[in-house]
């Protein structure tokens, strides 16, 4: 049970105290009325003795009485009715609520901290997230016991309202005070009248109430003297006469009203009556008048007039209309315990206010307080206690004389207890003798009287002996009511004995309770016994037993009693050594339910709120729903609308496991409550709606217009849209492209204020900065809704909620926002002019569906926009009406019960009204009050109830994890995606691609057009495009002469610039020279960034331009994703945006076409006289058709082979003439041979100017001018870039010196081969001719070059080895391989030589050895002719010959120098000889320590010697 203000001993002692009656004369009552008090009320605060009292027991032993209190009351002649008592109890409980403004008590039980004694109902509602932390901070210690003052008030009122009974004497009057005023004409005569009246009331059979303890009641005569009015001398003389007549022990002179109203008005006198009269209104006249039931208004008899004076005498001068009990009235038994009583709290509050409006004790001084206190002490010491002591002795003597036993009752009881005990009968074996009534002089009742007297004066040992004796006698007589009373008080006596050796007899109390309930059918006495026993068990820490008793006492006859006891049982569970938290919560739910049925709404709400602390967050969703539903209902009836909305909201925001019909009922409840709340504050801020759920993290924001869709052959740029999925890698690529173009525009540096352009913001983008939007361009917010319920929701008039700060950014950043507007209220005139808000009229979400809505805003002025949330009307979707138009949801049944049991609708639909209460159903008054405003017809639940509300979009930023502080704590950054800055107008570009292909052959060339449109009101300039694949497209040359405006070829509308050639012309090359800068290829300009050739570099508002665009399929097959980023600027400086971008992603699928392999080797042709073709090459080109006919390609034709280089060019094709036009079918190959030579001196001069030499060898009927667009464009964008990369890499590796570089250049060739082809494709029974070009880059002599990148085969998995990496050593000198190619040699001789060996035996043949220095540095050469071939095969095949003359030469050659050496070969007979026997050794001229290196031998030089 909850902690009480009094201890258990104090509670028991104050419950059973001596009762004293009061009879007052009219003058005495008039004197006390000056203080707004009756005489009984006047003395009530002073009825507790402050000192110990001694009295002697029948054995003449002294007994000490401590802290004795007496109960002084006016005489009540009619017993109270139970209905009126119930009404009073209900009002007392309703008036006692948790005190507001006090620190809440927190009780700790296991892992729970409970706010038990709430300082307000709102403090304990379950939807406050930080309740545990808050309550822990409020408490200074870990344990706080809970107090329930309403329970104490109920208990006190219950005990005071109990009528006296015949089977016990605890509440019978022991004495009677006769009070007369000194103002009476004859006070002594008034005393006689009052004495006779008391005697008549006690001994007349007309009065069953009150009860008197003994026939000879003590009469105590009190003379009141009003000091302010009466004469003190007269009062003293009357008092002297009284002492002579009644003795000094039986009378008293009480002086009071000493305070003079005119003086001391400002003196503050304490008011000791407030704590008694405000808390206990049972005997208060004003309160009692308010308690008269309305049902008895027709009864004209006087009810509730207090007898503390005398009216006009009737029949002996005394009236017969003594005051009935203040709770008397003919009222229905359940009227005040059920739902029909509406104004209980108002009645008590009004009565209390009326009682407190007049101050009490205004005529009394502190001296008067002491006089009253002294009066009570004198009455107790000199009158009451001696009378009780005398009565106890008389009763003891009577019992001894009647029993014939020992003189003292002590010896009697000792003998009784020492004899062998007779086994007592069980309570079930006994029969109730309800008709058994003992006469007043019966010995059993005398024992009971003596026991009660001893109990009242705290002589508990003697009282227990007497109770025990009486109990046995009552049980023998089967007087069960008497026996139960004796058992009850015997157990209380044992408990109250100081240092008692006996153990508390719990079974006595249990037997008494069972007897009262089952046999005697007296629930009032059973309840009293339960309350006493529960307090005793609680003091002994037997909380489980106490809870069991309390729960057993609950029944259906009294909801209030059951609620009070269930709540106390719940507190017992929580106060156990091992707290039973769930039992606490469950019984608090039961208590709250019974409180609700008893019309105690605040207490019901409090109980449910406390229980919610246990059920919340444990997964018991159905229990949580019930509790929140009830909290919402009770809060609504109590007009706590905010709490009601929060409770119903809690039901809807959790994952509900209710059925769809129940969810719909909950939703309709919430909508109605929400609508009621909004009606009370129409001018206030819109309330938050819980449905549907918003996934704030998934909110996306898009800035800009929706792009125009593609039309026919026009394909719009993909750009960015909300339909695209965000990819982090793609976003990083776009960022790199934008950084490249910004760096180019800003001359190689990126500004510090650079902000990556993001048109679509989501949870994965960088949202730390404020995004920038443009005036007159919409801002689209995509909101993701989730309907957690199984019923559909209808959102109407859905729009964004925003706040806008006007700001002019052109005037500088120092100027603050001057004005702020919002669309939450439509009162601002500038709201619609500044921001145009799109409204979605209807937006329906099905049950458990996730759906997105895109809401737009159109800003029309510059400033700062803050998107706060969304605003909409929430309603349920009207479902198809079921059976006769009724929805069978639980809410329907509840509503039907609320209306009328005899409703024609109920009888028609066949639904029976519920007559019993359930946990979801409140009292009928609650339901009627709750539903009376609804426009329902015949009990039908309304559909389509709509409420207006909002939901805020509060997006949490990313968690910060950079610094140490951020890593050790949980901090989140800002997310600014909903706070855009609206800046001034900017140009807006749209791009359309015309006839843009989706599939190409590798290397295929296609001409398309691209259209640029400026759809804004601002001119556009600085248009550029950046792409990671610049070799995919080209806008043409910067020089107009090199760019064909339209196809000029005579056949097939070729995209190349072609010229018809003469069929009789040779296959010699046609050369031309161009600069890479003409095609946008420059070392200073990154090749990724390309200027778009817009006329005049400006695109005016609304203007459009079409430009040709050449495409070339990538060399690798597969699907290619090519990103274009178009960059453009405004012609005017801008404060927030320096540029804008447009994104486009092209998807190209390429299939294989041709592959080429090329090899270059040195030619042996070396003329001694002419130096024009000294350095020449043989180029072998192998072309293969690798197409698998998947694209419908029939055959490929090689129509032209071109070369491009700064130093080399193709000279001619040496293939036979009939193979001029090579045709390749699938899987076929062709090999072509070309001669290449170094450029002449005039051409070399142009090369020094950075130009390239293009040489075209035509294999078909037309010449494609390769030095123009688009052939040259794609060559420079692909081959030159690769060559530059290789050159850069080579330069980084070779740092050994110029000599090494020069030696290496001997074998380097920068010759690029361009193979132009045509393909014949069959598509839709039509033949199409495709064209393209193939690039092969030759870089070294003797090494094969391929057009397609070599695919490396996957290596087999090997064991992992850890090796120490060796640093690469830079070669300080050329390798032997490089030094063996310094000199090119050639022998000039006649192939046939005729000689007559008969005439001359020796044949001398002149031979010329030509030496050519292939490098650019000087070389020392040694020619050795002495070498003889020792190979027998050589001797056998070629024979032997000799060189005559000088056989070894040492020659010094300069760079690129040609030197001839005349030789003579001597033959002795005819035959075939190989003259390539001379060995040539060479070394660099400036390398003295270097040895000569043997040069590679040339091909065999065969000569035939004929004998004539």
Characterization of the model:
- There is one protein chain.
- The chain is built from 36 helices and 57 strands.
- A hairpin with a 2-residue loop joins strand 44 (1308-1323) and strand 45.
- It is 30% helix and 24% strand.
- It starts with 7 loop residues before the first helix and ends with a strand.
- By secondary structure, it is of the alpha+beta class.
Layout of strands and helices, then pairs:
Blueprint: H1 8-15, E1 19-24, H2 26-33, H3 39-43, E2 53-56, E3 62-65, E4 71-74, H4 82-95, E5 105-109, E6 112-117, H5 131-138, H6 149-160, E7 173-181, H7 187-203, E8 218-226, H8 232-246, E9 251-256, H9 274-277, H10 285-290, H11 344-357, H12 366-403, H13 409-418, H14 443-456, H15 460-476, H16 480-496, H17 506-519, H18 523-539, H19 543-552, H20 559-574, H21 581-597, H22 601-615, H23 621-637, H24 641-653, H25 660-680, E10 693-694, E11 700-703, E12 714-716, H26 728-745, E13 760-761, E14 772-774, E15 779-786, E16 793-806, E17 820-822, H27 831-834, E18 835-837, E19 840-845, E20 850-859, E21 863-876, H28 890-899, H29 904-909, H30 924-931, E22 947-952, H31 964-968, E23 981-983, E24 989-994, E25 999-1001, E26 1004-1014, E27 1020-1026, E28 1033-1034, E29 1058-1060, E30 1070-1074, E31 1089-1091, E32 1098-1099, E33 1104-1112, E34 1118-1130, E35 1140-1151, E36 1154-1162, E37 1176-1185, E38 1193-1205, E39 1208-1213, E40 1222-1225, E41 1229-1238, H32 1241-1248, E42 1252-1258, E43 1262-1264, H33 1271-1293, H34 1298-1304, E44 1308-1323, E45 1326-1340, E46 1345-1346, ...
């Amino acid at each position: 049970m909850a902690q009480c203000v009094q201890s258990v001993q104090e509670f028991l002692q104050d419950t059973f105290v001596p009762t004293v009656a009061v009879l007052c004369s009219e003058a005495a009552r008039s004197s006390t009325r000056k203080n707004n008090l009756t005489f009984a009320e006047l003395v009530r605060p002073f009825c507790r003795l402050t000192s110990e009292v001694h009295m002697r027991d029948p054995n003449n032993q002294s007994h000490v009485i401590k802290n004795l209190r007496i109960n002084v009351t006016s005489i009540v002649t009619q017993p109270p009715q139970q209905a009126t008592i119930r009404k009073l109890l209900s009002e007392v409980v309703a008036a006692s609520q948790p005190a507001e403004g006090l620190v809440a008590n927190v009780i700790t039980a296991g892992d729970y901290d409970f706010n038990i004694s709430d300082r307000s109902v709102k403090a304990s509602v379950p939807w406050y997230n930080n309740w545990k932390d808050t309550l822990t901070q409020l408490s200074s210690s870990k344990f706080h016991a809970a107090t329930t003052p309403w329970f104490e008030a109920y208990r006190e009122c219950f005990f005071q309202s109990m009528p006296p009974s015949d089977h016990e004497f605890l509440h019978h009057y022991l004495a009677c005070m006769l009070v007369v005023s000194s103002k009476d004409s004859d006070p002594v005569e008034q005393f006689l009248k009052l004495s006779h009246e008391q005697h008549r009331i006690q001994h007349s059979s007309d009065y069953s109430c009150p009860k008197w303890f003994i026939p000879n009641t003590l009469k105590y005569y009190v003379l009141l003297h009003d000091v302010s009015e009466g004469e003190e001398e007269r009062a003293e003389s009357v008092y002297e006469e009284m002492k002579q007549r009644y003795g000094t022990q039986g009378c008293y002179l009480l002086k009071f009203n000493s305070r003079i109203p005119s003086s001391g008005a400002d003196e503050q006198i304490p008011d000791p009556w407030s704590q008694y009269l405000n808390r206990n209104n049972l005997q208060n006249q004003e309160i009692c008048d308010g308690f008269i039931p309305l049902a008895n208004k027709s009864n004209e008899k006087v009810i509730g007039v207090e007898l503390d004076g005398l009216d006009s005498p009737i029949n002996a001068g005394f009236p017969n209309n003594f005051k009935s009990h203040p709770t008397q009235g003919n009222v229905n038994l359940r009227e005040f315990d059920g739902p029909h009583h509406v104004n209980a709290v108002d009645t008590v509050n009004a009565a209390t206010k009326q009682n407190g409006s007049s101050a009490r004790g205004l005529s009394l001084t502190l001296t008067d307080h002491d006089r009253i206190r002294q009066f009570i002490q004198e009455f107790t010491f000199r009158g009451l206690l001696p009378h009780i002591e005398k009565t106890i002795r008389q009763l003891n003597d009577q019992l001894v004389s009647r029993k014939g036993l020992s003189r003292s009752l002590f010896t009697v009881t000792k003998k009784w207890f020492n004899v062998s005990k007779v086994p007592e009968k069980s309570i079930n074996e006994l029969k109730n003798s309800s008709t058994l009534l003992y006469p007043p002089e019966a010995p059993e009742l005398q024992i009971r009287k003596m026991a009660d007297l001893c109990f009242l004066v705290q002589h508990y040992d003697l009282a227990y002996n007497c109770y025990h004796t009486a109990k046995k006698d009552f049980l023998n007589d089967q007087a069960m009511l008497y026996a139960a009373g004796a058992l009850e008080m015997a157990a209380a006596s044992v408990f109250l004995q100081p240092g008692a050796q006996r153990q508390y007899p719990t079974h006595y109390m249990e037997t008494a309770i069972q007897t009262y309930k089952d046999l005697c059918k007296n629930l009032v006495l059973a309840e009293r016994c339960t309350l006493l026993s529960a307090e005793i068990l609680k003091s002994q820490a037997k909380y489980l037993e106490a809870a069991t008793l309390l729960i057993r006492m609950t029944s259906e006859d009294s909801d209030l009693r059951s609620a009070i006891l269930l709540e106390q049982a719940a507190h017992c569970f929580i106060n156990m050594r091992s707290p039973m938290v769930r039992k606490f919560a469950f019984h608090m739910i039961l208590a709250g339910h019974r409180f609700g049925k008893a019309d105690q709404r605040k207490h019901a709400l409090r109980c449910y709120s406390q229980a919610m602390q246990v059920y919340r967050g444990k997964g018991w969703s159905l229990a949580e729903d019930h509790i929140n539903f009830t909290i919402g209902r009770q809060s609504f009836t109590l007009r706590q609308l905010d709490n009601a909305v929060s409770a119903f909201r809690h039901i809807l925001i959790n994952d509900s496991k209710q059925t769809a019909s129940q969810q719909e009922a909950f939703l309709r409840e919430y909508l109605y409550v929400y609508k009621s709340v909004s009606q009370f504050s129409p001018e206030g801020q819109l309330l938050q709606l819980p449905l549907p759920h918003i996934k704030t993290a998934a909110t996306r924001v898009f800035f800009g217009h929706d792009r125009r869709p593609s039309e026919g052959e026009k394909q719009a740029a993909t750009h960015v849209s909300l339909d695209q999925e965000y990819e982090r890698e793609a976003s990083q690529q776009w960022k790199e492209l934008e950084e490249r173009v910004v760096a180019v525009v800003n001359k190689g540096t990126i500004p510090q204020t650079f902000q990556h352009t993001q048109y679509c913001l989501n949870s994965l983008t960088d949202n730390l900065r404020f995004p920038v939007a443009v005036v007159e361009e919409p801002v689209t917010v995509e909101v993701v809704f989730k309907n957690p319920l199984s019923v559909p929701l209808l959102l109407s008039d859905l729009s964004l909620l925003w706040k806008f700060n006007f700001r002019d950014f052109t005037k500088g950043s120092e100027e603050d926002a001057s004005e702020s507007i919002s669309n939450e209220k439509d009162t601002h005139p500038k709201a619609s002019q500044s921001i145009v808000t799109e409204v979605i009229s209807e937006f329906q979400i099905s049950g458990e569906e996730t759906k997105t809505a895109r809401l737009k805003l159109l800003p029309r002025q510059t400033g700062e926009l803050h998107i706060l949330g969304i605003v909409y009307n929430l309603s349920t979707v009207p479902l198809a009406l079921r059976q006769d138009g009724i929805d069978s949801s639980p809410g329907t049944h509840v509503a039907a019960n609320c209306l009328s049991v005899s409703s024609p609708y109920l009888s028609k639909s066949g639904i029976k009204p519920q007559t019993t209460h359930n946990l979801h159903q409140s009292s009928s008054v609650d339901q009627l009050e709750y539903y009376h405003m609804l426009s329902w017809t015949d009990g039908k639940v309304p559909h389509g109830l709509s409420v207006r509300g909002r939901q805020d979009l509060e997006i949490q930023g990313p968690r910060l994890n950079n610094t140490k502080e951020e890593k050790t704590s949980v901090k989140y950054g800002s997310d600014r995606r909903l706070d855009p800055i609206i800046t001034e107008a900017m140009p807006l570009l749209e791009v359309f691609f015309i006839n843009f292909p989706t599939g190409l052959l590798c290397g295929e060339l296609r001409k398309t057009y691209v259209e640029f449109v400026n759809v804004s009101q601002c001119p556009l300039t600085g248009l550029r495009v950046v792409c990671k694949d610049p070799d995919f497209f080209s806008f043409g040359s910067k020089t107009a002469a090199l760019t064909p405006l339209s196809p000029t070829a005579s056949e097939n509308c070729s995209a190349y610039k072609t010229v018809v050639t003469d069929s009789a012309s040779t296959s010699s090359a046609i050369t031309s020279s161009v600069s890479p800068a003409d095609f946008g290829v420059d070392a200073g300009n990154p090749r990724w960034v390309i200027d778009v050739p817009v006329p005049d570099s400006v695109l005016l508002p609304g203007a459009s331009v079409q430009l040709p665009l050449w495409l070339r399929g990538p060399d690798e097959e597969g699907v290619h994703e090519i990103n274009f980023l178009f960059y453009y600027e405004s012609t005017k400086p801008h404060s927030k945006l320096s540029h804008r971008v447009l994104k486009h992603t092209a998807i190209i699928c390429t299939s294989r076409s041709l592959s080429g392999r090329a090899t270059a080797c040195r030619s042996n042709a070396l003329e001694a006289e002419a130096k024009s073709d000294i350095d020449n090459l043989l180029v072998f080109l192998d072309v293969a058709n690798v197409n698998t006919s998947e694209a419908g390609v029939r055959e490929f034709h090689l129509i032209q082979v071109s070369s491009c280089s700064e130093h080399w060019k193709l000279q001619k094709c040496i293939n036979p003439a009939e193979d001029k036009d090579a045709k390749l079918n699938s899987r076929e190959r062709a090999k072509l041979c070309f001669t290449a030579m170094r450029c002449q001196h005039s051409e070399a001069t142009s090369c020094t100017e950075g130009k390239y030499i293009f040489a075209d060898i035509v294999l078909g009927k037309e010449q494609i001018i390769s030095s123009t667009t688009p052939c040259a464009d794609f060559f420079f964008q692909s081959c030159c870039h690769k060559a530059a990369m290789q050159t850069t890499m080579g330069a980084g590796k070779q740092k050994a010196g110029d000599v090494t570089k020069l030696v290496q250049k001997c074998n380097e060739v920068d010759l690029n081969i361009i193979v132009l082809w045509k393909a014949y494709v069959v598509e839709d029974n039509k033949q199409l001719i495709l064209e393209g070009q193939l690039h092969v880059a030759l870089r070294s002599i003797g090494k094969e070059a391929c057009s397609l990148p070599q695919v490396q085969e996957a290596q087999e998995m090997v064991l992992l080895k850890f090796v120490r990496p060796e640093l690469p050593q830079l070669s300080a000198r050329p390798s032997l391989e490089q030094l063996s190619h310094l000199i090119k040699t050639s022998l000039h001789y006649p192939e046939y030589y005729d000689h007559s060996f008969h005439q001359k035996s020796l044949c001398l043949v002149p031979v010329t050895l030509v030496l050519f220095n292939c490098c650019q540095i000087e070389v020392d050469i040694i020619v050795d002719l002495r070498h003889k071939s020792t190979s027998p095969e050589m001797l056998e095949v070629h024979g032997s010959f000799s060189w005559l003359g000088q056989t070894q030469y040492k020659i010094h050659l300069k760079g690129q120098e040609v030197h001839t050496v005349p030789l003579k070969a001597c033959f002795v007979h005819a035959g075939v000889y190989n003259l390539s026997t001379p060995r040539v050794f060479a070394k660099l001229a400036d390398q003295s320590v270097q040895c000569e290196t043997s040069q590679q031998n040339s091909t065999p030089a065969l000569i035939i010697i004929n004998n004539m």
